[in-house]
Design brief:
mainly beta
Length: 122
């Protein structure tokens, strides 16, 4: 069973930055699309960003485009989400996920991490 382990969450003031990391347990993830999703209390899980296996193609939700950057280092087997200019509405549990398709739909992601809490204070 492939495991995804996120790290880097925490508490930050509005306007601040955080970088999330995700490390899959198997190196075969270099061939898989990786995505980030988030879920706020009382809301459904929503897509944040994804990156192709090569790292050349990225896609963002409108709510984070221009503020968040997804990247991957296949040599280190790690995916990152750099979050800048954070807003209180970015507060959520952030999940790393892996898919064999370039998609924004959560149900097509077969692999999920346990989530990391990001809290942005106003």
């Amino acid at each position: 069973q492939v495991q995804l382990v996120e790290s880097g969450g925490g508490l930050v003031q509005a306007g601040g930055s955080l970088r999330l990391s995700c490390a899959p347990s198997e190196r075969t993830f270099s061939s898989i699309t990786m995505g980030w999703f988030r879920q706020a209390p009382g809301k459904e899980r929503e897509f944040v960003a994804r990156i192709s296996w090569s790292g050349y193609t990225t896609y963002y939700a409108d709510s984070v485009r221009g503020r968040f950057t997804i990247s991957r280092d296949n040599a280190k087997n790690t995916v990152y989400l750099q979050m800048n200019n954070l807003k209180p509405e970015d507060t959520a549990v952030y999940y790393c996920a892996g898919s064999r398709s370039e998609t924004v739909v959560a149900k097509y992601y077969a692999y999920w991490g346990q989530g990391t809490q990001v809290t942005v204070s106003s």
